[in-house]
């Protein structure tokens, strides 16, 4: 079976999470969309069609993939999968048997479609999405199961259900808690607990599987007085330090986690070692959350949470929305994020005790309560290199080029946000002077 993943125009609605990765690499449940399908079906021959800026780094991470290679499509029919599609477990298993004349549709948008070598001859990087939409009009439309996510908070909203779906999809992993030390307390059925045999678990750890499954990957370490409430997943090599992990949470690989986390996704290589609350949030790789960094995920009046996406306010329609933090952002001691905050990539958060702005564009700094772009690009890259080296992950030349490209791409958003804050500050100072 040949599979290709693609991004459509809705990728802009997921900034800043998609600045450094395609949308199908965003995690929901135990996996991203690409992992869920490729690993479940053991797909060997697969491709990805991404933005030009991501080609080099994506190939670096996935050397076995055919990235933006239209010639590869001539070798046989290929199932194109929208990177925003979250299929349920039965849908994933049925993908190899989908009729070639069908197109999966959700809310009038393509979830999946077979592309033949003859169809592929029309495709280019610039017209790929429009060609897929044209092809869809020639196929038999089938209502697809699952969901096409449109905004980052939908990943959080779907995470608990997806964790349960992924537990059902799991293969080759122990499906019970029988390999756990006797000192680990399990609440609920041990059949809903899957712990890799290489995991180290101290005494006085509680695993609560009454509301959903709990899974822990290879070589994880769970320290005493930690509590894991399902559905949740702890990725490989991650370490939990006296952590309270609430339901609906995914902790990716190589994270360091303490404090309370509820219904959140930490994609991987996230450091939240200290106390502090993180709720209904999505945190990208290489973020460091300083001690007592906390976000609100519920407004006092229980009204719908509005979130700035690339500076434009969008009503989520949900009462519980936390924060969304881009790659390599660092927060200092006592950072306080308001409900529905969007923090870009490579930000430096140095709080002054007040709630932080809800919109902090990429490569910005909060300093003495003010938003500015005072961090030089070279310093930002140097800090990223040092942070990655601490985990034996070198910053590659391709990644550095991507960082520079993102810096230029987000320049106008940064300038507009800084100008807005300066005008608000001037207006406030004038009002105080007139009192």
What do you see in this structure?
With 435 residues, the chain is α/β, with parallel strands linked by helices. It has 2 domains: 2-150, Spore Coat Polysaccharide Biosynthesis Protein SpsA, Chain A (Alpha-Beta Complex), CATH 3.90.550; 155-434, Hexapeptide repeat proteins (UDP N-Acetylglucosamine Acyltransferase, domain 1). Helix content is 23%, strand content 28%. The chain contains 9 helices and 38 strands. Strands 12, 14, 15, 17, 18, 20, 22, 24 and 25 form a 9-stranded parallel beta sheet that branches. It has a 9-stranded parallel beta sheet with strand order 13-16-19-21-23-26-31-34-36. Strand 8 and strand 9 form a beta hairpin. Mean pLDDT is 93; it is low at 171-178.
Assigned CATH superfamily of the largest domain: Hexapeptide repeat proteins
Secondary-structure-based class equals alpha/beta
Uncertain spans, ≥5 residues at pLDDT below 50? 171-178
Helix content: 10-25%
Summed up, the domain count is 2
* Shape verdict: globular
The CATH class of the largest domain is identified as Mainly Beta
Strand content: 25-35%
Task: Using the coordinates shown, work out and report the CATH topology of the largest domain.
Answer: UDP N-Acetylglucosamine Acyltransferase, domain 1
Number of strands: 38
Using only C-alpha atoms, the radius of gyration works out to 22 Å
CATH architecture annotation of the largest domain: 3 Solenoid
